[in-house]
Specification:
Number of strands: 2
Shape: globular
Number of helices: 8
Structural class: mainly alpha
Radius of gyration: 19 Å
Number of domains: 2
Strand order of the largest sheet: 1-2
Largest sheet: 2 strands, antiparallel
Length: 200
């Protein structure tokens, strides 16, 4: 098993959230403009996507190099960003990139749902070292996460299909991470109730 190396938390946060913040900054600066590249005009959204993809690749590689490990969520996110972000840039169509969060959340909800059906809690296998809980606690948390991911997938579809690009970028950059933070704060009692004794 590859041993995970510890790195500075601020550096880790910068590598994880830096690409998203850069996407937001580039979009906000270019959202009302078009940029000509190779004789083709691209919107600010497409240019921000074009910047985001290589930066995310580099930051993910840096995380892997520094920690010796990547979470399944990070790998899946990187693959979908490359595929759907690449399609958006290649076809000059922002819809593909906007659908990416929906697919990510559906993928995670499906994977967690299958693990529950098979009685093999994959979330527990991945996170048990960081968050020691009983099997019952992991089962409850996994059920709640399935519901959360399905809700986020639906919310993303509603926002990108019915609101402006700026509203979707704000939702993606600030709304989705905030929902995840609130979710885990609201589940603090679950973590306390099902925490394993220290000697275990």
């Amino acid at each position: 098993m590859t041993q995970t190396k510890k790195i500075n938390p601020l550096l880790k946060a910068a590598l994880e959230f830096g690409p998203l913040i850069l996407f937001f900054v580039v979009f906000m600066r270019l959202r009302d403009k078009t940029v000509a590249i190779g004789g083709t005009e691209y919107s600010g959204f497409i240019v921000a996507t074009l910047v985001f993809i290589p930066v995310l690749i580099l930051s993910t590689l840096a995380l892997w190099r520094l920690t010796g490990k990547l979470a399944p969520m990070q790998i899946a996110t990187l693959v979908l960003v490359i595929v759907f972000g690449g399609l958006s840039v290649w076809l000059n169509d922002p819809r593909f990139f906007k659908m990416k969060p929906t697919l990510i959340y559906l993928l995670f909800a499906g994977a967690l749902g299958i693990s529950l059906a098979l009685r093999r809690n994959w979330l527990q296998l991945v996170m048990s070292e960081a968050l020691p809980m009983s099997a019952e606690g992991w089962r409850i948390l996994t059920q709640r996460l399935v519901g959360l991911f399905l809700g986020l997938a639906l919310a993303n579809e509603v926002v990108w299909r019915s609101m402006s690009e700026t509203a979707w970028v704000n939702f993606k950059t600030f709304g989705l991470p905030a929902v995840m933070v609130v979710f885990f704060v609201l589940n603090a009692k679950l973590f306390e109730r099902h925490a394993l004794p220290k000697d275990e």
